[in-house]
Amino acid sequence: MQDKTKIALITGGSRGLGKNMALRLAEKGHDVILTYHTQKAAAEAVVTAIEAAGRNAAALQYDASEIGGLDSFVVALQQLLQRKWGCAAFDFLVNNAGIGATIPFAQVTEADFDRFSNIHFKSVYFLTQKCLPLIRDQGRIINISTGTTRFCVPGYSVYASMKGAIETFTRYLAKEAGVRGITVNVVAPGPIETDFNQAAIRSNPERKAAMGAQTALGRVGQAEDIGGVIAFLCSPEAGWINAQRIEASGGINL
Questions:
Q1: Of 90, 88, 82, which is closest to residue 34 (Cα–Cα)?
Q2: d(CA 235, CA 114)
Q3: Of 86, 147, 213, 220, which has the fewest CB atoms closer than 10 Å, so is most exposed?
Q4: pLDDT the model gives residue 205
């Protein structure tokens, strides 16, 4: 492997935002490892698209809700890096995998809380901890948050609370990883028209129009609006951006 080749690991890269992140990073000349939970065929289609564009890619199964599986996932990641790239390290970690649900506060169960905590906070925290020794110096870690840590949407109390924890974690990690030249940032999308949260925006034209009307640019976001931000943060030009929350929302609720 040539020194200039950089490898990104994107969790939840088979669809939506993660898929676009993977494609945009490949466009910038990077190789990509993406994870999927159940949608193996979709993940393999992303891999095929990246390889057709001249970059190397691979997909690994990963269940963010099963914290006990982290060690075996990291072993599989190490084996893949050695087998496909002949190396023991990668450059960019994008913690994107997640779930969505609109649950009024009074209806949140302990099981809901634990599931969101495991997927959106605990797995991110400990996957990052286990991967940090594998990330090259001068690498990048990007955590995906949400606009709803800044403004409130009824039904998002548990989701946004976990993302708020991620934003605090990001600043602490930036402080500790900085000695190795690794930057750590948060990207917080606003409402995006994907199949996230059972396509809550895409399947509801009235809700889509209302959210678009609250945005300075007059529309909701598309996956393409986020992938390029991730690619930029992984570029040399973004090397001085660190410990920041970057909201990519088109200017909603100003």
A1: 90
A2: 35
A3: 86
A4: 86
pLDDT of 38 above 90: yes
Compute and round to an integer the Cα radius of gyration of the chain.
Answer: 17
CA dihedral 168, 174, 176, 178 (to 10 degrees): -170
Closest CA to 9 of 99, 124, 171, 159: 124
d(CA 32, CA 13): 10
Is the alpha carbon torsion for 210, 213, 214, 219 positive or negative? Answer: positive
Q: How far apart are CA 10 and CA 35, in angstroms?
A: 6
- Residue that the structure tokens 């970059």 belong to: 55
Q: What is the pTM of this model?
A: 0.94
pLDDT above 50 (res 1): no
- Kindly give the interhelix angle for 70-80 and 123-131, rounded to the nearest 10 degrees: 40
Structure tokens at 209: 């129009």
pLDDT tens digit string along 19-37?
A: 999 999 999 999 999 999 9
Q: Return the SS3 of 163.
A: helix
Active site includes 156? no
The one catalytic residue among 125, 156, 159, 172? 159
3-class DSSP assignment, residue 203: coil
Tokens of 199: 């396509």
Overall CATH class of domain 7-248: alpha beta
Spans of all domains in the chain: 7-248
**If we measure between CA atoms, which residue out of 245, 64, 226 comes closest to residue 167?**
245
Phi then psi for residue 4, to 5 deg, are -75, -15
Q: Summarize pLDDT for 110-124 with one digit per residue, the tens.
A: 999 999 999 999 999
Is residue 14's pLDDT more than 80? yes
Nearest to 131 by CA among 116, 144, 141, 119: 141
